[in-house]
Design brief:
CATH topology of the largest domain: Arc Repressor Mutant, subunit A
Order of helices and strands: HHHEEHHH
Radius of gyration: 18 Å
CATH architecture of the largest domain: Orthogonal Bundle
Number of strands: 2
CATH class of the largest domain: Mainly Alpha
Number of helices: 6
Strand order of the largest sheet: 1-2
Number of domains: 2
Shape: elongated
Distance between the termini: 33 Å
Length: 120
């Protein structure tokens, strides 16, 4: 995901895959099969994600529970928006993307554009 390091992206994947907010220990346990990490490393990553506004947190006793500030799809759309806003010619970038899109992606774009056109 744009703007995230590898470990930050792995932590976000854990949070996005969870149906509930997680404590640092929960995230650490879910990352454990792939990585050997210290509790403090995961805590620091979650603090950084909170500072960057990728996650929100709520106090749970002496700890926090963390959850994504946006869904995975919303975060992807926000990243695309940032890229389009940062380049000089977003129209050309969109046209290049459209040429590379799969049939399924083209159908989804057409459907979304048709819905947008019908809005008052």
């Amino acid at each position: 995901m744009n703007g995230l390091g590898r470990l930050e992206a792995a932590v976000m994947d854990v949070l996005w895959d969870s149906a509930e907010p997680l404590r640092v220990r929960d995230v650490l346990e879910r990352l454990a099969p792939q990585r050997r990490l210290a509790y403090t490393t995961v805590m620091t990553v979650l603090e950084n994600l909170h500072r960057k506004e990728w996650v929100v947190r709520e106090r749970d006793g002496r700890a926090y529970r963390y959850e994504p500030a946006a869904t995975r799809d919303e975060a992807a759309a926000q990243a695309m928006r940032r890229v389009l806003d940062a380049i000089g010619d977003p129209e050309n970038a969109l046209l290049h993307f459209a040429r590379s899109a799969s049939d399924r992606e083209v159908a989804a774009l057409r459907k979304a554009l048709d819905r947008r056109r019908r809005r008052p």
